[in-house]
Amino acid sequence: MAKDHFIPQSLLRRFVERDKGRNLNVLDKLSGEMFHPAVRDFGSIKDFHTLSLNMRREFPDEDLPQLEDLLNLEFEDLAAPLFERVVESSSLSALSPDDRQVIIRFVALQWVRTPGRIFNMRSGLARMSGKEEPARNLKVFGTPSTPDPLRDVGLLGIPIDAEGLANVLRRAHLALALAPGDLAVVGDNPVIALSDRELPENVYAAFLVSARGSDVFLPISPRHILYLHTDQDATTGTCGKTLPTPLELSVDAMSYLNGLQGKNAVQYVVVPRQNQITKVKADIATQQAVRFNFKRAFD
Fold first, then answer.
1. For tag attachment on the chain, is the N or C end more exposed, with fewer CB atoms within 10 Å?
2. DSSP 8-state class, residue 281
3. pTM
4. DSSP 76
């Protein structure tokens, strides 16, 4: 059985607490306990990208898309060296227009591929209809050992949806935000999207990440956070600007974003330093108290 990652190992390796071994510090937000998996064992689900039994019976192996390989080749492998440069220099100044789009495609992939997106959608639908929300679970696509056309549609849609979303996000401005104290956390549902519009609690906005007036955040290390902002008057097809100079986040803004990472996570949050655990729990509990105007960086 394959262990398919929905959070790339190249990203997770930056969150290892180096002076305490080479494992991650992971908070289970349901139990409040912390555990320490190896990078290769976290952010993955067995056969997560395996198509269902019917598809594998109907088509020869050579005709079936190898989704794990496709996502690695077309999205992750292209972005990995760019992220290394960005983290080393703490700047986006060396990015070409093509490099910029590779990074945006990676952000789009991380939005559509994680089980958290499907879980949030199901939870939102349950709230809208007055039904009980589903139990928190990252295995949202069932099992490949049975016929399951919905599983196949969901999996095959990942690269298609990511490419389409990336084309819309070309209009977004791109910046790099720096976390004070190198204390940015990353959850199992790592792309955070905020909107100028106040949405009712029972609403799940499936495409909030591409909405006008949206802010989007993705931590790529404990210090570096990708930030995309789409202007209210942005036009699809136009290309946003890239800020070469990084944004220095305040401690309060960082606590707010860490709280959002924890709140958005289905179950797990990766903490770069073990002694951060009490603060992260507090950030998750209080993150709605303050809203920050991040987009002023682009004014």
1. C
2. H
3. 0.92
4. I
